[in-house]
Amino acid sequence: MMAVMGQLGVGQLAAGWFHRPDRTTLLVAIAATLIGWAMHVWAERSTRPPRVEPGPAKRPPPLPDGSTEPPAVVALLTNGFRTPHSAATATAINLAARGWVRLATVDSEPVVVTRSQAAAGDTLQPFEQQVLNHLHSRAFNDVVSAGTIAASHHRLDADWWRRFERAVADTSRAAGLSRPRYTPVEFAPPAAAVAIGLIAAWMSGRSGEQIAIADSWTSRTVWLLTILSLVALGWATAQRVRGTAQRPTDAGLERAALWMGFRKRLRDRIPAHASALAPPPQQQALAQACVMGVAEHVLAELPVAPEEHRYAWSEAGNAPHVVRVYYPSRPGYGQHPARIGVAGVIVLLLGRWLQGFLRRVADGESLTSLLDRAPGQVDVIETIAEVLALLCWLPIAWGAWAVVSGIVDSLATRERVGAIVRARRPGDVLHPLILSTLKPLAERDRFSTYLAVDDGRRDWVIAWLANERTAAPQGAQARVRATPLLGFIRSSEPIGTATRAPSPTP
Are the C-beta atoms of residues 403 and 345 closer than 8 Å to each other? Predict the structure, then answer.
């Protein structure tokens, strides 16, 4: 696929912009794009692991070989067959329970002593060795503090996590609990559609006619958007090929149900003051609990990996499950509908006026004095004006969206009662480039936070943006009223806590 893209040539692809693309081959490219994305979405939905129903509230029996799944594999089984960040911390706690490291406190701060006291004959899985190596790399005189571990999160880059997830997936597959989620049956059709679409787009640009941009901007824009969509599909397909996503086997679903049942027992018995500085048997239970959304305070006590922003455990709907959180970043999101509506009217009117002015310049009806003073540059000036007039559709489209969303959100309000599974500042979840782009409309100098409220109805949540008056803490049960399009929170009313009461059992 990438070889095909390299053979197309930048100059030949650019011809579709400077010439009107051929319509027949452009239609082929569009059809390939639509079919490719349809196959991509179909593969996503058809291979999605089902939500696991909890089994009996007791400890799962050993596997046929007499062993028990490591906490990282338990995390894979119970988190929708993906490996969460909590698996790294749980692995470190499990290593402490087995004597590979030792947990202690120095000046009231947790520390990890990396000097090994493991039992003879105990062996490590590749992902366990990877976590152990990370702890050793941060230690000084065989000791590393929790603060140093937290400060070294930047060392856990995408390559580190990819190796960790692949090692956990390999262990799960070796036990017969999972298999790769995406096979050539799923990612080959989108890859073929990308190759066919790019070839058709190249042929469309190569055989195009020289026609003024003002007379063919529609087909040129469609051609460019088709190219961008094909590139995005190619990137998404490549990520699937490189990824480590899993789907369950029958044995994996059975074990996942048993672990989800054991989760209820852990939730009832682990006290709120439980610490990773516990005897080895309790450390084993804590390692299993924290990957299933129980005793999450242990993750903060030993922060081997940062808390995930986009995935969270939820108890909403009386069915424990993992939800995916989305943080919208479009301009104006989280702002008052009236303000965005007025801004949209202004941007829309200015965009239409500027577009009309640029089109008159391209037709030689405006700035005639400038054109007369530069007779040799008339074609260049008219071409630039045509391109700028075309680009004016971007603010015009946003202005139209702002007007519609401002009107709709001024009249409509959505209420959601559930658990606040994530409360995040925009700087924590948005790319710095996006933050700098949205600065004029995001009011970064004022307090704002995303609130992800889960009511248990779906496996994903779109976070709303709150200000200082409407913010609420993570972990609380709240009644939140927000607008449907702009995500502006009108009010939030905490009604309880999502965490359980402390257990009297030590």
Answer: yes
- Tell me the one-letter amino acid at 116: S
Asked whether the CA dihedral 74, 243, 50, 183 is positive or negative, the reply is negative
Taking Cα atoms as reference points, which of 464, 160, 420, 422 lies closest to residue 311?
422
As beta bridge partners, residue 466 has 449
Per-residue pLDDT of the chain (506 residues; tens, 9 = 90+): 444 444 444 444 444 455 678 888 889 999 999 999 999 999 999 999 988 889 898 999 988 877 889 999 999 999 999 999 999 999 999 999 998 999 988 888 889 998 877 777 788 999 999 999 999 999 888 899 989 999 988 888 989 999 999 999 999 999 999 999 999 999 899 999 999 999 999 888 777 666 655 556 677 788 889 999 999 999 999 999 988 899 999 999 999 999 999 999 998 888 888 888 888 888 899 999 999 989 888 888 889 998 899 999 998 877 888 999 999 988 889 999 999 999 999 999 999 999 888 888 777 777 666 656 666 566 676 777 788 888 888 899 999 999 999 999 999 999 999 899 999 988 888 876 666 655 544 444 467 899 999 988 888 999 999 988 888 888 889 999 999 999 999 999 888 665 544 444 43
Instruction: Calculate the alpha carbon distances from 95 to 113, 123, 461 in Å.
Output: 11, 11, 34
Q: What is the DSSP string of 264-296?
A: HHHHHHS-TT--SSS-HHHHHHHHHHHTTTSST
Q: Which residues contact 478 (CB under 8 A, 6 or more apart)?
A: 417, 418, 419, 420, 451, 453, 472, 492, 493, 494, 495
Provide, for the chain, the percentages of residues in helix, strand and coil under a 3-state DSSP scheme, each rounded to the nearest 5.
55, 15, 30
CB 201 within 8 A of CB 227: yes
Q: Which pTM was predicted?
A: 0.83
Q: What SS3 state is found at 54?
A: coil
CB-count exposure of residue 174 (10 Å: 0-12, 13-18, 19+): exposed
* Spatial distance between the Cα atoms of 193 and 187, rounded to a whole number of angstroms: 10
Residue 439, exposed/middle/buried by CB under 10 A (0-12, 13-18, 19+)?
exposed
